């Protein structure tokens, strides 16, 4: 606890709602990370799927982000968050439990895995929008960056443990017990979500679904900081997911690594994300928020580009896995720096009645590229070979990582200055635009 700042210690000790929501989110994160790695791993090892099929299974988990993010924002703005947090956790747990039963009854099929991935992905969209819209309502404004740092640290720990646990459990206990563990984690998240009290829906005026969705999109896209962050996050997530899909095929079929070794390499790499999450606020204070944002994305791209560079050297299996993990450490550190400040900006700029809409709109752009990245990764691995594809994706990622260098966010010293950058252009626009955002 010594590495946590005083604000986080106070929140965990005195803010019951934050403690309950964070506990549930921690369980959900671990379950999600285990599931995200488990489903494509099952496709490669148990179903003997092609690279394109592996990419499809990964992509299906993220397609609902594109189709339902804006709907989720509207729902979250109209209903108490506890209901959404509990229901979506139960749905994900049930889907995984059914996969475990199907495996025990006679073996999984690709159709069952794809269907479960779609259900889990749909529930995850609503859960994440509800969680991220709830946090600013239960945490003081001056503590949001620290709370997001803890949130990102928890996510990083789940990234560390999830893939490693999935590979270990599948290897030692089999598929059905592994699915049961993931289902139990989501059941725990549902219980923690049920303890949330006193947080109501913001009571936005009732209007048609299309009008509500359009209003959220216009508001989000009218703010230059959010627009730039959306674009950078979308490009980065496209390449991250594309790279991970190629890497899974590359590591198993060209490097000869087993599921456990691949999970360990990716999981240990999340130590970098954990470290970045815990020190992000301090780094932002020393080198400014703008530099942390821009530098973090470039560092993330450099980390992934180190992966094929390491694999090109003739090394023993243990040394290879260790160096691959180190490359993912660099990547995770950079991703964490960006995420902590990007999420904090997204939560502090909009008013309460726009939090759900802004969160959903941002996630549509930022995460909507994930299914495309997953499918493109599998297709590239099949068309070019995983060895060539992993280099192409890595170099492309490095090129797009410089997007924020051309944004006014680059010069923002603090979150408050970045917030003012978002308000400035709006005040220069028409009075109608000003009044519509108020």
Automatic annotation (TrEMBL):
Compartments, record wording: Cell membrane
Membrane topology of this protein: Multi-pass membrane protein
One Pfam family of this chain: MFS_3
GO cellular component: plasma membrane
Location, primary (coarse class): membrane
GO MF entries: transmembrane transporter activity
Keywords attached to this entry: Cell membrane, Membrane, Transmembrane, Transmembrane helix, Transport
Residue stretches spanning the membrane: 54-76, 85-104, 110-130, 178-196, 255-280, 292-311, 317-343, 364-384, 390-409
Residues covered by the Major facilitator superfamily (MFS) profile domain: 1-412
Protein name in the entry: Major facilitator superfamily (MFS) profile domain-containing protein
Protein species of origin: Streptomyces malaysiense
């Amino acid at each position: 606890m010594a590495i946590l700042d005083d604000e986080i210690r106070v929140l965990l000790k005195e803010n019951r709602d934050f403690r309950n929501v964070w506990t549930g989110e921690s369980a959900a994160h671990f379950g999600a990370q285990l599931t995200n790695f488990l489903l494509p791993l099952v496709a490669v090892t148990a179903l003997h799927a092609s690279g394109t099929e592996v990419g499809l299974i990964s992509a299906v988990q993220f397609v609902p982000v594109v189709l339902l993010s804006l709907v989720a924002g509207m729902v979250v703005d109209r209903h108490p968050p506890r209901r959404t947090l509990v229901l979506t956790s139960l749905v994900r747990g049930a889907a995984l439990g059914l996969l475990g039963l199907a495996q025990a009854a006679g073996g999984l099929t690709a159709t069952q895995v794809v269907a479960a991935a779609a259900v889990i992905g749909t529930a995850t969209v609503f859960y994440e929008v509800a969680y991220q819209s709830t946090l600013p309502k239960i945490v003081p404004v001056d503590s949001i960056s620290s709370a997001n740092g803890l949130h990102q640290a928890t996510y990083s720990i789940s990234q560390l443990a999830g893939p490693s646990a999935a590979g270990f459990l599948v290897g030692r206990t089999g598929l059905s017990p592994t699915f049961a563990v993931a289902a139990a984690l989501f059941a725990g998240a549902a219980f923690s979500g049920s303890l949330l009290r006193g947080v109501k829906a913001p009571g936005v005026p009732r209007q048609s679904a299309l009008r509500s969705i359009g209003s959220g999109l216009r508001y989000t896209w009218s703010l230059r900081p959010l627009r730039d962050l959306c674009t950078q996050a979308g490009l980065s997530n496209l390449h991250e997911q594309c790279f991970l899909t190629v890497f899974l095929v590359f590591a198993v079929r060209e490097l000869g690594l087993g599921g456990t070794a691949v999970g360990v390499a990716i999981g240990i790499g999340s130590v970098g994300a954990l470290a970045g999450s815990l020190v992000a606020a301090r780094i932002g204070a020393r080198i400014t928020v703008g530099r942390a944002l821009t530098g973090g994305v470039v560092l993330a791209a450099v980390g992934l580009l180190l992966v094929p560079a390491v694999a090109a050297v003739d090394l023993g299996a243990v040394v290879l896995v260790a160096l691959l993990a180190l490359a993912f450490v660099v990547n995770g550190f950079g991703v964490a720096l960006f995420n902590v400040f990007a999420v904090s900006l997204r939560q502090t700029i909009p008013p309460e009645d726009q939090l759900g809409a802004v969160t959903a709109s941002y996630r549509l752009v930022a995460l909507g590229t994930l299914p495309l990245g997953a499918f493109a990764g599998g297709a590239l691995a099949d068309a070019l070979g995983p060895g060539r594809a992993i280099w192409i994706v890595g170099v492309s990622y490095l090129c797009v990582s410089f997007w924020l260098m051309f944004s006014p966010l680059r010069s923002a010293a603090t979150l408050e200055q970045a917030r003012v950058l978002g308000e400035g252009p709006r005040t220069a626009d028409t009075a109608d635009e000003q009044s519509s955002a108020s």
